């Protein structure tokens, strides 16, 4: 529940039966909310009332603000209850519903965001929408109550026009889903080079990152630039990525005490975050910092990985191994209160030496550097911690380290922000892959254990082996039965990462089942690409194909890259073909708007180069084979797979044997392999050889 909705509230609505933490936050509003489903739709049809659809998520700051101002207002709620059927949707549980109505609002208003508030006919067709609406007229917008009254007036006097307009809009939305599958496949490297140049043009050379404020990490962009640098030997691209990683690690967007990253910074300097923490950001940033560590060799980047995974293990993990979704920006009604410090608090808690180090190196001042503008009475003198000084001298390093430890311990006694403890297949798949690669690259066995426990949690709680069905959400013992491409694709990518880190045959077998099921349920064999939803998902106006990589990468991008990697491991040409057809379907996006699909460029980069294969024979659990696996992972090479000789690997690999009972690595390109070796340095030299020049 949000802090503004005490359990003792005298109001209760249908959301009390739901599992989503976001819907439960609204279960005691005076608004008669319903969940998305038959009950609400039947009521709207029988009463011939318009539907008020409100979409958000449990850690959404402005969703909380609108709830406090509007949905807890009894007069406003009474008006809604009289004239509308009100439906709440958790966008993280149902990104498919969110995508449809967000597309409508973006098309009609030019912008979008959450809370997303849309008015629909009883047939679920949208006719008006927007984001946050204030309780009083301001920001050039009418108040929410004025809007409701205007909608009611139109519904009573011009309903036929509204319904016709909604039908027309729906047809136009359906038309946007069709892509040209006859696009010429982007065969050359022109698109790859153009995308790299586009991203570098947006690079902020002062602070790192891409674009201005508000500044999102969007890790797919720097991840692609590392591949661009590898292919085109561009040192500036590497510098841009390392600068970005340094800037984020030093900034307030990075929790300087507890690890982990906030969603974005409101400024261009990474200083003041929007404090909510999302699992998908932690997962993608771990992948980015692992790769930047491989490329730049900066130990600080490996340390950021460890701190982020410590945070996830400590604060974002179910005892049985699942990963929770998010933590809120607000606590006790104030954004950032959990994370910020006053100078007086610092001096009272720490020794003079520690306090001096914190003031000097973490930027604490009397005035502070953060004001919570969303609160009518902001707290005074609040400081977001960020690394501002030069590197501490040895004596000061000790004082600073002990100060961090003491501040983190003191912070643990504060009121924590709300945590959204649902477990999503898609975000868990992302985190699974990140943790698996952290084990492979950093060599820490605790990460392997963390990854394997997560996979077994997903297989127990979200996967049905009999029907080969992956549910999207699990919480408190209950899965939702919703199937989404995001879940299958991200879990597939994570399982492939875990297989390459461990070479356990059962892990690869599960990846094959996931890939086959994803192809059966979501792939469009006629035009290419993957649908966001399965064929028979009820109550959807249309089936979408995701063609945008935003804060989290789109399902088509993730599916294409995962299938290309798995195809190279298993020699399944139909998966390579499906990925190629998906890239062809989205070729115009790659060509015209590279900013929209940075993750898809990872797949395009992969498909344009023959992957190198490192086949490791012998018992993968043994020390010698484990050493060879680890050695192969310690070289940045974006076009390689690591596989064993057991399970559904390609037939050629199954024929390879250890020499004299000792594990060997076979380093292969195409159908040619070098002599088998047990020497880790030889494996790394093979992966460091420059690719053949395509120019």
Whole-number total of structural domains? 4
Name the poorly predicted regions.
1-8
What fraction of the residues are assigned to beta strands by DSSP? 5-15%
Instruction: Specify the biggest β-sheet.
Output: 5 strands, mixed
Please give the CATH architecture of the largest domain: Alpha/alpha barrel
Overall spatial form: globular
The whole-number mean of residue pLDDT values reads 94
CATH topology of the largest domain: Glycosyltransferase
Question: What do you see in this structure?
Answer:
It is a single chain. By secondary structure, the protein is α+β, with helices and mostly antiparallel strands. The chain folds into 4 domains: 14-176, Glutaredoxin; 202-328 and 421-607, Glycosyltransferase (Alpha/alpha barrel), CATH 1.50.10; 339-413, no CATH class; 613-688. The chain has a 5-stranded mixed beta sheet with strand order 1-3-2-4-5, sandwiched between helices. Strands 19-18-20-21 form a 4-stranded mixed beta sheet, with helices on both faces. It has a 3-stranded antiparallel beta sheet with strand order 8-9-12. Helix 24 (623-633) packs parallel to helix 26. The longest helix is centred in the N-terminal third of the chain and has 18 residues, at 159-176. The protein is globular. The model is unreliable at 1-8 (pLDDT under 50).
